[in-house]
Amino acid sequence: MAPTLEAAAQDAESIQDVLTNPLKQKPSLIAPEPEHCPGPESEKAGLADSCAGCPNQKICASAPKGPDPDIPLITARLSGIKHKILILSGKGGVGKSTFTSLLAHAFATNPDTTIGVMDTDICGPSIPKMLGVESETIHVSSAGWSPAWAMDNLAVMSIQFMLPNKDDAIIWRGPKKNGLIKQFLKDVEWGDLDFLLVDTPPGTSDEHLSVNTFLKESQIDGAVVVTTPQEVALLDVRKEIDFCRKAGIKILGLVENMSAFVCPKCTHSSEIFKATTGGGRALAQEMGIPFLGSVPLDPRIGMACDYGESFFDSFPDSPACKALKGVVRGLATNLSLDPGTVMPED
Ligand code: SF4
């Protein structure tokens, strides 16, 4: 059945509710949350129509609705991180995780910079493979969970490290996903980092709301939005930009990925995804957000990701690396940092 206007309005209201209210402490439940659970931490817990008949109804209805006591712990845990950046995309298939791993490697070319990458794509974690730490597991110490180190100055944390088998499907609903993201933020011992890149799943889902609400107090610097040039991708980017504006997340810039294919042999450039409506640059101008640059397609990027190697180390003079360096410098400028210090000239 098609969604009604009334249902759409209610949905919009609940998004606004989540964005404007701090997360509440989850009560101890006596049964698993049912499928249509509004969230045991939500204002409507135990009171919503969908709570009728749930064995937890009494507990949820009477649970204290104060702010989540874990939020100050998260803020303290992340206090050693200078800049926290979300990497977002409106739709899947635009190469967001590939871009995140390239960006991490680009930052890491400066030995004086320490980077962390947090993979919150719980259902499809691909960052560990791309950064060459797929076989790592989590080490737990009294200080917390230790991230895996892909390079001397590049740390990674992903759900992948907790899976006994990398091919296991992860089928988790909202509250459990939120719990894991909270644990990532609260328990991972990142130490002192210059930048933490948070790779999120495509769209505007639970994971985005959780990351944003959990990090509200620790101050996210902003988001980098990744798209491809064709209108079908740009349509969804407009929604992502609207989400950021509603959530109060500053947009640090838009990146157009796979903007053209540059042949590694003859360097001839071909537009695979044609920018029929002007591509990322025109959209950034239309929406009044910074445009950080276009990163061309290069088959060697896919190979480097498959082998978990740094594309920067292997092909530093490629057009894609040059474009990414420009993206890092633009990002540094938008973070009010000196671009020449963040990404020194060769
Ligand atoms: S009572 Fe409502 S909020 Fe609580 S677990 Fe059941 S469905 Fe979820």
UniProtKB/TrEMBL annotation:
One CC-aspect GO term: cytosol
Keyword tags: 4Fe-4S, ATP-binding, Cytoplasm, Hydrolase, Iron, Iron-sulfur, Metal-binding, Nucleotide-binding
Single GO MF descriptor: 4 iron, 4 sulfur cluster binding
Binding site for ATP: 90-97
PROSITE patterns for this protein: MRP
Binding site for [4Fe-4S] cluster 2: 263, 266
Physiological role: Component of the cytosolic iron-sulfur (Fe/S) protein assembly (CIA) machinery. Required for maturation of extramitochondrial Fe-S proteins. The NBP35-CFD1 heterotetramer forms a Fe-S scaffold complex, mediating the de novo assembly of an Fe-S cluster and its transfer to target apoproteins.
Protein family: Belongs to the Mrp/NBP35 ATP-binding proteins family. NUBP1/NBP35 subfamily.
Protein name in UniProt: P-loop containing nucleoside triphosphate hydrolase protein
Naturally occurring in which organism (per UniProt): Rhypophila decipiens
Gene name, Swiss-Prot/TrEMBL: NBP35
